[in-house]
Design brief:
- The chain has helices at 2-22, 25-32, 36-55, 70-80, 87-120; strands spanning 133-142, 145-154, 159-160, 163-168, 172-174, 177-179, 196-202, 210-219, 222-235.
- By secondary structure, it is of the alpha+beta class.
- A hairpin with a 2-residue loop joins strand 1 (133-142) and strand 2.
- Helix 1 (2-22) packs antiparallel against helix 2 and helix 3 packs across helix 4 (70-80).
Length: 236
């Protein structure tokens, strides 16, 4: 359908150009801007792909970006694109396209609610907890202060984990301060900003030697604190 649409747009554009030459540019402009739905879709296509070229593809495109243009997409698929074919083929092609789109939409709708429930609300006791979050930690000592920094966020909800607990040597437990980390922001989601944590402790609180730092988190999918498996070492 995309190829047929391009062919149809080319033919229409050539016709509009001929109108501009033989009659007037005002008449050609009136014809070119008469279909608001299609013009809005074409404008958006140019904007979105121009933006992708500008950012180098760093921000992935998502289906929800196209939701406002569904009427235009349907109009193109069912009426405009098939007209690039001979009349005896355009109507059957439009009908086949309608059946395929309607069938796909029906099947997708049938699984929408169950998929959303499984993705965001259901618990998965058999899943490894490591599939639910991402965590990282760094620790060092500077000016007689132990500095612990890290990030932790829920992969399923694309949001900060519910709770973070830092354990040192498996005994001392601390609740770190949470803060924004725009550098790990993913897919332009503002919910991911508040995923950083930090902890500052006087070095005199620890005996000389090496000390291990472990991170435990709590997510909506598990009620108890989970060992993230990420750790760091600092030396006094």
């Amino acid at each position: 359908m995309a190829i047929l649409f391009v062919v149809r747009v080319y033919r229409i554009g050539r016709g509009i150009f001929n109108v501009a030459i033989r009659r007037s540019w005002r008449t050609a402009a009136t014809i070119a801007t008469s279909n608001i739905l299609v013009n809005s879709l074409l404008t958006f296509i140019f904007i979105i792909y121009g933006f992708q070229l500008y950012v180098g593809g760093d921000i992935p495109m998502q289906g929800r970006y196209w939701l406002p243009f569904l009427p235009a997409i349907w109009l193109v698929t069912f009426t405009i694109a098939p007209r690039a074919l001979p009349r005896r083929l355009s109507i059957p092609v439009a009908r086949v396209a309608f059946v395929l789109v309607f069938g796909f939409a029906t099947l997708a709708s049938a699984y929408t609610f169950s998929s959303l429930h499984e993705r965001f609300y259901d618990t998965h006791p058999n899943d490894s907890p490591s599939n639910e979050f991402t965590s990282a930690i760094w620790a060092d000592v500077s000016n007689d202060v132990v500095r612990i920094n890290g990030v932790a966020y829920d992969l399923r909800l694309a949001s900060p984990v519910e709770e973070i607990e830092v354990r040192i040597d498996g005994r001392k437990r601390f609740a770190p301060v949470r803060f924004d980390r725009p550098d790990v922001q993913c897919d332009m989601e503002k919910t991911l900003l508040h995923v950083g944590y930090r902890l500052r402790i006087a070095a005199t609180s620890f005996a000389p030697g090496s000390h291990r730092v472990d991170v435990f988190v709590r997510t909506p999918w598990h009620h108890e604190l989970i060992d993230t498996g990420t750790n760091a070492i600092f030396t006094i």
